[in-house]
């Protein structure tokens, strides 16, 4: 079985971030490659041939993931260092960059003039709510930076949930400390900076 690899970082630009479909697709692909298939990725680390084949092992279905098997600590650490953490870091970098784009002025916003025109028109509008009770409601168009900020905020929440779930499985299968994923990722960041 081929080993999983980290999804390569996309070329970061404001256009990448503002194309929300492409941003979502990148995050989804990265998550599906590593986090959504974490059990298969961890199973690929276990090589039963090292212990020799036991023909009786096929007589009974093994339902327990641990089933007397201890994962090789070196393989686990290599998976975390070369696949899991780089994938998480790439997604963090993309979300941080896009959060910066969302909080920066957007002079290229295609709807800016339309929103300004609507806003001016709405300030001049006289509303008689007795004739049309819904006329006082005005839903201004959302700037694309606001939309992007909401998307980044939601995706960061999704990241927290997915990383927590993935780290739980990695900790269970590879053994190791009771350290949370944030601490482990920060240690990896520090060691990879050297």
UniProtKB/TrEMBL annotation:
Residues 175-194 are annotated as: Disordered. It comes from the Eukaryota. InterPro entries: MIX23 (IPR019171), MIX23_fungal (IPR016805). GO terms for cellular component: mitochondrial intermembrane space. It holds the Pfam family MIX23. Belongs to the MIX23 family. This is Caffeine-induced death protein Cid2. It comes from Aspergillus puulaauensis.
């Amino acid at each position: 079985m081929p080993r999983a690899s980290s999804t390569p970082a996309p070329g970061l630009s404001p256009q990448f971030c503002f194309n929300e479909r492409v941003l979502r697709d990148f995050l989804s692909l990265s998550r599906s490659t590593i986090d959504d298939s974490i059990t298969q990725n961890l199973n690929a680390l276990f090589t039963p041939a090292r212990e020799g084949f036991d023909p009786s092992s096929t007589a009974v279905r093994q339902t327990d993931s641990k089933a007397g098997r201890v994962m090789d600590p070196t393989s686990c650490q290599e998976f975390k260092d070369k696949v899991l953490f780089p994938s998480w870091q790439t997604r963090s970098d993309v979300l941080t960059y896009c959060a910066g784009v969302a909080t920066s002025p957007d002079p290229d916003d295609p709807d800016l003039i339309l929103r300004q025109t609507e806003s001016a028109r709405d300030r001049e509008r006289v509303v008689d709510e007795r004739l049309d009770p819904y006329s006082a409601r005005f839903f201004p168009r959302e700037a694309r930076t606001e939309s992007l900020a909401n998307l980044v905020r939601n995706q960061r929440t999704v990241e927290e949930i997915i990383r927590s779930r993935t780290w739980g499985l990695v900790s269970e299968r590879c053994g190791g400390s009771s350290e949370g994923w944030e601490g482990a990722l920060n240690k990896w960041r520090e060691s990879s900076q050297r």
